[in-house]
Design a protein that fits this description.
Length: 1211
């Protein structure tokens, strides 16, 4: 069967745009032989002539800055003497800077003195090579600590004259680096100067240099560049180190003017580590990303096109790194959008992580209130395009930790068509050793450096990660010859030997500069751009090429990484492609042109013309998203959570247990023909009825019928027929941990409907006297007696997680009185585990509804229904244990049986689980004090270690502090060494060996259930998933999957798992799925999304998607009218008095010899959610025969009308 493809209309538009007819020069790149050795060869300094060693000079008067980003000078590359070869400038911190002229064959001569570039006594950090004066040659701008920056103007032959004052660039401060771009598109280069920090000679004065003025504390003027008052600390007052301010300088005819504040850039002093110009939103304007150290927030500034910028960090980024260092932008997945990798200093091993975390409690207030949130790790920001958001795939991409990192270079080093990542590492001393913390008192009259000077250095291995082309990266540092152990800071990529690939040069402390020759032999293409404007090197230009691997994007921005400047050669690896069908050049002024049929293995030089001309651009593709945000719930207040101190009651809990709602029930409670909702409340906040007004808008009312139980937290909720009176009733599960065990707050509630949207609470005796903290509720006629019975999942025993709570099977007597029959009809179900979700459906086509149950720290279990008795069925998939959240049923492979989609935590968290190395949880009395404690653990190189750090572990179990004394001892001890093997063995032990969200493909035969687990695509694993909707959302006749994602409430060290936007996956009808990007789906949900529901809200014949949010709003999306999708057929079944909507029925329609569509009616599925009691089929079922298996096992058939009516099928 051919698959329906969502198409977009073609629009021919007359667009008057500047199209430059460039001049071009091309030449053949040299042929290279493949080598069997490593990808990179480190060259001997004796051979290159670059023998400079950047020292740690303990006698220098400014040695105090060795604790900072100024410790090691940067590197810049470019052709300074016009001979076509790439030269190198190396900033030498306390020593003389050096210029190395390339003589060919990777030989360099030191021409510093001849060129007049020694720099005098200035301590230089970064020093970009850039054509400031627009004369076609590269000038040099040195950023100095504590002395004016210097600008050396090139005479074209490599001789320089200092001219900073003439250009108003003689800024005196602590400028670490400068980056240049034509942000106002006037043809010349403007500058962003990145401030770092001033270090006071003598450290802190004995008395705080503050004064109480105007109702607050202020730092005295003479000290204000060194210190700042922090009034947000727990103590209420704290003296912090101050950063140095940034400058945005506009180039006005060769004079640089400070426009920082008027342009909307923060002039507050932060401690900047890198600045990145990039056009993240592809609008032709240069935007800025600023990476700041410590508690200073990073900034993403969007260029507004009128000379101003807007800080959109919190609107576009889920979070940022805490100790942000270097950054680089590249398109890592070849989708045409620039992504961004920002590195931090997170350790790559258990030992490094646990010895650098320190006392996390002292940072708790900051971690809870930072805006944007800051995470102590690298962030791999994946650009979602027109969704105007970034996902963070760092954990999933294997890029979350890289040790004490400085520079990052995203380039296609092996020329396979995918951008790889090279990262430099190391530090002058181990400044974040948790066993050697800095005490404020010890810094009086002392610099930080003085406390560490006598300690050993901290070299670390540089790292390189190969891009696998699927958003994942493998560590190839050793394999590629780049795992040098050093204290490495700045790095550049450049083609030093003119062979068409990218070599690397790395600046080290206390050892010679490292030069790595690239020995790649793939297909490639290189480009050099020239503009006739004053921006002669076309800085900021964008190149897009189309290849068999997708659309590959490069930007011409040489300042990337950390304090370094690359040559402006643009390099594309092409993999197996021998030709580029199309290259689009977008010049810095916004004009563009297309180059076609470019041969591989050639170098191209393009010069922008001065004479733009108008051109008709025809057949512009206008892409419409599948969904658009709707206003159905705009009048509905958001779900609200009352904060509860979960971690006070169980200090080492992995996650909060008090914020898993809200539940969502759906049904027509007022009999007016449209669906209404019940939105569960939280402790102290009663649930709400959302009445459909008939036009798709909703009106809320507090659920006054439940006001006496406002102390209960609503989890699962369900509209269903309880007592056979024809009026929909409501069942609500009580959960959470906000009361002691067996408290009356945990009693579940049944409310009987009166048919007009009002309810009365059922008689107390209608439900058994049960006080379990529950999760989900799901209904079916499991015993085929004609009425609807209930399964209620037990979630937790408050204060005793993860002990197993009780789950219950309640049998209905037909009049709305329920009896607990768990021990007689489903004995194994009572203590099945920590239940998160459940669904009833007939798995093996024997007409009896089976129960599928999802567990945290357990499997997805099948309880096989054998004529009214539920028995656990042993399956091969029982060994697939996880942190399952939601379940939904659908025939995703069109084979006539129902498959199960199960949501899990995904691959993009700090946790990594496999059969060989599962995640573990232990619960026992490890400190012999009579109370049980929790231990999370995982594996590293076969050894089991605790996840939690020394500070929080010893806080919960003080004996650890007495036993171990130091962070070092804690970090080197295995779990058994910390807690003894006997204690471990005596504890309750749980494990999870898969965190993938996926499908349990149904391979059952009648009476013989069988599943095979299949993970969903990688992007579906980008964040924890909860709610699930299975439906044909793009109307191509195949079932798709929508996942509600993110989890905001783990313990504070883990940080919120807010990496995704929720996701739609399109199916092919064979059980395979493809992730649809957010910009194409139109679904953008950065919040803590939980439940989902799919169905028609406004009787327009088209279904809408509804998503609930914990502590947030209800979101709804409607199908985009511009997509022109074919209509669906809605089928409603009319069942019996006690099951009027035929819950549990299955409808199958055979539309051809090879194609069968199967749908079922469930009540209580996904995650704490309910779907409408109707079924949606493709329009092609009209005129076909439908076979209905009714809840009692009766099988009937009927013909679907050919008219456009939606049929109601009677029993």
């Amino acid at each position: 069967m051919s698959r329906f493809i969502l198409t977009f209309p073609l629009i021919s538009t007359l667009i008057l745009c500047s199209i430059c007819q460039s001049e071009s020069v091309t030449s053949k790149l040299p042929k290279r032989e493949a080598t069997n050795g490593k990808l990179f060869q480190k060259l001997d300094p004796a051979d290159t002539g670059i023998n400079l060693v950047l020292p740690i000079n303990k006698k220098h008067p400014l040695k105090r800055v060795y604790v900072s980003a100024f410790a090691c000078g940067g590197i810049s590359s470019g052709d300074v003497d016009g001979d076509g070869l790439v030269d190198l400038f190396i900033a030498n911190g306390p020593g003389k800077n050096r210029l190395y002229i390339n003589k060919g064959n990777l030989k360099f001569d030191d021409k510093t003195e001849t060129a007049n570039l020694g720099g005098g006594d200035a301590w230089t950090g970064g020093a970009p090579l850039v054509d400031i004066d627009g004369d076609g040659d590269l000038d040099l701008y040195t950023c100095n600590y504590g002395t004016p920056n210097q600008l050396f103007i090139n005479d074209g032959k490599g001789i320089f004259v200092e001219s900073a004052r003439r250009f108003s660039l003689d800024i005196n401060g602590a400028i670490l680096m400068a980056a240049f771009a034509d942000y106002d598109q006037d043809g010349d280069l403007d500058a962003y100067l990145l401030g770092h920090r001033h270090y006071r000679n003598g450290g802190k004065p004995p008395k705080p240099p503050t004064v109480f003025k105007n109702g607050t504390y202020e730092v005295l003027p003479n000290y204000s560049k060194y210190f700042q008052v922090n009034l947000n600390s727990r103590a209420g007052f704290k003296l912090d180190a101050a950063g140095a301010r940034d400058y945005l300088l506009r180039n006005d005819d060769g004079k640089f003017v400070d426009v920082t504040e008027e342009a909307g850039i923060s002039s507050k002093p932060w401690q900047g580590n890198s600045v990145t110009w990039w056009d993240f939103n592809s609008d032709g304007l240069q935007d800025i990303y600023i990476a700041n150290d410590f508690e200073g927030p990073d900034f993403l500034y969007r260029n507004n096109g009128n000379g101003t910028f807007t800080d959109i960090t919190t609107l576009h980024m889920p979070h940022v790194p805490w100790f942000s260092m270097g950054a680089d932008a590249a398109d890592i997945n070849n989708d045409g959008h620039l992504d961004l990798l920002v590195v931090d200093m997170a350790g790559t091993t258990h030992y490094k992580s646990k010895t650098s975390m320190g006392a996390m409690g002292s940072n708790q207030q900051f971690m809870l209130t930072a805006n944007p949130p800051q995470h102590m790790r690298n962030c791999m920001f994946l650009n979602a395009g027109k969704a105007n958001r970034f996902l963070d795939t760092a954990y999933m991409s294997n890029l979350a930790s890289s040790d004490w990192s400085w520079s990052v270079k995203l380039s296609d080093f092996n020329e396979d068509g995918w951008s790889d990542a090279f990262i430099t590492n190391g530090i002058a001393r181990n400044f974040n050793n948790s066993d050697n913390p800095i005490d404020k008192e010890t810094l009086v009259n002392k610099s930080e450096w003085s406390l560490y000077e006598g300690l050993p250095p901290r070299p670390e291995n540089n790292l390189c990660f190969k891009n696998n082309g699927d958003l994942t990266f493998n560590d190839t540092s050793k394999e590629w010859g780049l795992d040098e152990l050093s204290m490495a800071y700045g790095a550049i990529r450049a083609d030093l030997d003119s062979d068409g690939d990218l070599d690397l040069v790395v600046a080290n402390l206390e050892k010679p500069i490292s030069v790595f020759k690239n020995q790649a032999s793939g297909n490639r293409l290189t480009v050099r751009l020239t503009s006739t404007t004053a921006n002669t090197k076309a800085i900021g230009a964008r190149l897009e090429i189309k290849t068999s691997l997708g659309k590959i994007v490069r930007e011409n921005h040489p300042v990337r990484g950390f304090s370094s400047c690359d040559d402006s050669l643009i390099h594309f690896g092409l993999g197996k492609d021998l030709n580029v069908s199309e290259m689009k050049i977008v010049w810095p002024d916004g004009s563009s042109e297309i180059k076609e049929n470019l041969a591989a293995n050639r170098h191209y030089e393009f010069t922008q013309s001065q004479k733009p001309e108008s051109k008709i651009v025809a057949k512009k593709v206008e892409k419409h998203s599948l969904f658009t945000k709707s206003s159905h719930f705009r009048d509905i207040g958001q779900h609200w959570e009352q904060p509860f101190p979960d971690f006070k009651h169980q200090p080492l809990l992995p996650n909060k247990l008090s914020q898993y709602g809200p539940g969502l029930a759906r049904g027509d409670i007022d009999n007016d023909g449209d669906d209404d909702f019940y939105l569960g409340g939280s402790t102290g906040s009663v649930g709400r009825i959302l009445l459909n007004l008939g036009n798709g808008r909703f009106q809320e009312r507090p659920f006054k019928e439940g006001i006496l139980e406002a102390g209960s937290e609503d989890l699962g909720a369900l509209f269903f027929e309880a007592n056979g009176d024809g009026k929909i009733d409501l069942f609500v599960v009580s959960g959470s941990v906000e009361a002691p065990p067996n408290h009356k707050r945990y009693k579940d509630r049944l409310f009987l409907g009166n048919g007009n949207g009002e309810f009365i609470k059922a008689n107390e005796n209608s439900l058994p006297q049960i006080f379990d903290s529950g999760s989900c509720v799901s209904t079916a006629d499991f015993d085929k007696d004609g009425d609807l019975d209930l399964f209620i999942g037990g979630r937790v025993i408050p204060g005793a997680y993860p002990l197993t709570p009780n789950s219950r099977l309640l049998s209905n007597d037909g009049s709305g009185n329920f009896k607990d029959v768990t021990e007689t009809s489903a004995l194994a179900l009572k203590k099945t585990g920590l239940v998160t979700s459940a669904i009833w459906t007939d798995i093996d086509n024997d007409t009896w509804p089976d129960l599928i149950v999802a567990h945290e720290w357990g499997p997805v279990k099948l309880f096989h229904n054998i004529k009214g008795l539920l028995k656990p069925k042993s399956l091969a998939t029982d060994n697939v244990t996880g942190w399952w959240n939601g379940l939904a049923a659908g025939d995703v492979d069109n084979d006539g049986d129902l498959d199960i989609v199960a949501s899990n935590f995904g691959y993009n968290t700090k946790y990594k689980a496999s059969i060989a190395a599962p995640e573990l949880l232990f619960y026992g009395d490890f400190d012999a004090d009579g109370d049980k404690e929790l231990l999370e653990a995982g594996f590293e190189d076969g050894e089991c270690f605790p996840h939690r750090g020394f500070s929080c572990s010893s806080g919960a179990m003080p004996f650890l502090k007495d036993k171990l004394k130091t962070f070092h001892n804690f970090a080197t001890a295995s779990l058994q060494e910390l807690y003894t093997e006997n204690k471990i063995n005596d504890s309750l032990q749980l494990e999870a060996n898969t965190l993938a969200t996926g499908i349990f493909i149904n391979e059952s035969s009648k009476g013989n259930p069988k599943f095979k687990f299949k993970p969903l695509p990688l992007l579906a694993q980008a964040s924890p998933s909860f709610g699930i909707t299975i439906a044909d959302m793009n109307h191509d006749s195949n079932l798709d999957i929508f996942l509600a994602q993110n989890f905001y409430n783990p313990q504070i060290e883990t940080r919120p798992m807010d990496n995704a936007l929720s996701i739609l996956l399109t199916g092919d009808g064979k059980g395979n799925f493809e992730a649809m990007s957010s910009e194409l789906s139109g679904i953008i949900l950065p919040g803590d999304s939980k439940g989902t529901s799919w169905g028609d809200l406004d009787n327009d014949g088209q279904p809408e998607l509804i998503i609930t949010t914990n502590d947030g709003p209800i979101n709804s999306f409607k199908l985009n009218a511009k997509t022109k999708l074919p209509p669906l057929v809605q089928i409603r079944l009319k069942g019996t008095k006690n099951n009027p909507t035929a819950i549990g029925a299955i409808v199958r329609v055979q539309v051809s010899n090879n194609t069968q569509f199967t749908r079922t009616i469930t009540a209580g599925s996904g995650y704490l959610s309910q779907n409408p009691q109707t079924m949606l089929f493709p329009a092609q079922i009209r005129g076909k025969n439908a076979t209905i298996t009714w809840p009692d096992g009766l099988v009937t058939s009927t013909s679907i009308p050919t008219s456009n009516t939606n049929p109601v099928i009677l029993r």
